[in-house]
Fold each of these.
Amino acid sequence: MSVKISGVKGMNDVLPGQVGRWQELEAVAREIFALYGYREVRTPVVEPHALFARGVGEGTDIVSKEMYVFEDKGEEKLALRPEGTAGTVRAFIEHGAFVEGPQKWFYMGPMFRRERPQKGRYRQFHQIGCEAFGVAEPAIDAEQIAMLADYLGRLGVQATLKLNSVGDAACRPAYLADLKAWLVERAGQLCADCRERTQKNPLRALDCKVPSCQPVLEQAPRLGDRLCGGCRDHFAAVKAGLDALGVAYAVEPRLVRGLDYYVRTAYEFTSDALGAQSAVAGGGRYDGLVETLGGPPTPGIGFALGEERLTLILEALQRPVPVRRPAVFLISADEAGAKEVLRVAAALRKAGVACDLDGRGGKFARQIKQAERVGARYALVLGGAEVASGQAKLKDMETRAETPVALAELAAVLSRSA
Ligand code: AMP
């Protein structure tokens, strides 16, 4: 008995008809990141559970509710990575990369979170992320944000940059205590999530999206008014850097990154094309993280962007999916031709000419239909006569015009017309 098995909910296939979009946005990322000196790192999708518990934080939704955790035959507790920064930092420390001075790394790949699937939110999704280690100065913040703006611009994506400073160990604790007291006083006007966050992580309450909480939270004390001198200077320098580079931003006093190790710069790019899940990318400075994970004190700043969300935007913009078409489709007219097509195809491919053929052979009409379906630019019919004379006709699939060509010249002719 046959049984049809479907894929896991919230985990998607990307079929060949769509994959060109993914390849494009990844290729553009590699190109732009290289211009800024970021180099690729590849880390495993499975890491020790403890890495995320410590690196992302036990108190976060990602770790406490959404992570796929399993035991490896009674050994260490493992987890599918829910984000890319922790693993990248682990690798950075484990391989002693810090001894080489400042480093810029990027990654791309699947992440896993057991969230409620909806448009733009999946259980396996893909992120492209960048991390710059070893520079505490605001120049690197501005450069990284500008790079991301550059990247989105190259893809034709219009996104709004929201920017904030979340302070540091010098100024945040006093603010948090005041914020908590302020929120406790207004607990009756806030949602259950806000009330829970007030206790666990009051900063996160500011991030609440529930409409009835908005008028209350709008009035909340602002960290921006309470920054220490160091954080104020840093924030001013990041803004000045972006101004100098012509990158537009909106200061968003309630934009926070929920984790303790985030300091100073926090940023997000959002797009109206996305509906409810409007965040395309989010980033921030995490000067304490390398140390938390056992490395030497090393400042860092990074971001992650969601590839699915980018593809949704590109779709909404009706940007065509790039496709690679064969230059020529080889059609066999008879048995002699059927023997010849594979040999001719091999020679063309060796010369770097993309070609295809219908391995079934058979009727001309069926083969030419297949040539149309794969979008070949030309078709070439090969039979006993062509093999004997060394001459064939190249049929332009669009105009249907036929041009004689010597088989010996075929690769050269097609390379020229590519
Ligand atoms: P985060 O790691 O939560 O800051 O997310 C960074 C980016 O990854 C977001 O701006 C989204 O574009 C994307 N992202 C996060 N979670 C998901 C998800 N469950 N499904 C699809 N994309 C996501």
Note: Residues 83, 113, 115, 120-122, 125, 127, 279-282, 304-306, 308-309 surround adenosine monophosphate (CB under 6 Å).
Amino acid sequence: MGHQALERERSRSDSEYLQVPHLASGDMLREVCQQQTELGRQAVEYMQSGRLVPDEIVQEVVFSRLNELDCKQGYILDGFPRTQRQATLLDQRLDASGRPLSAVLEIRVPEDELLKRLASRGRQDDDRKIIQQRLQQYAEWTHPLLDYYRNRGILQVIDGLGNPDDVFTRILKVVDRISPEQVSQ
Ligand code: AMP
């Protein structure tokens, strides 16, 4: 199985195992870009240059998806939040519904491996300059969120090296350790 197929298999498996939908903000935004709407037109510009899409756009796309019926029992959010503003908005929303986050997983991969993986996806938004820009945006906006969640005691660090099956097994081990009380909160 090729790398991309394995990635798909893995992402299907985690959400199947937990029986909740896997919601990737990047996938949702790519769908929005396909639509001939003002929102899509704006999102395309940011994504093509490797910059983060503005919080208001991402929030609208992700939160409207969370309102759907299949999210009632929980969900895996992948790639969201990526800024402190998004994290705060998510907290506000979850606090209002009485179901705070159970866990945040950091899947940690050294930068050289990350570059290899990004380049091998072969997508239009993955060329070298754009990848550098994405890494810079990660360092500036997203990396600080690790402390935010670590201070709350819900950050779990997972070694992302190795093949997707190994990483998946590590994720399940961590998820299994999260108590049912935490998950059902
Ligand atoms: P990904 O598929 O997660 O690698 O995301 C691809 C691109 O979508 C990123 O480079 C951003 O431009 C945009 N994107 C995805 N998720 C977010 C987010 N939570 N906030 C802002 N931009 C995002």
Note: The first strand starts at residue 22 and ends at 24.
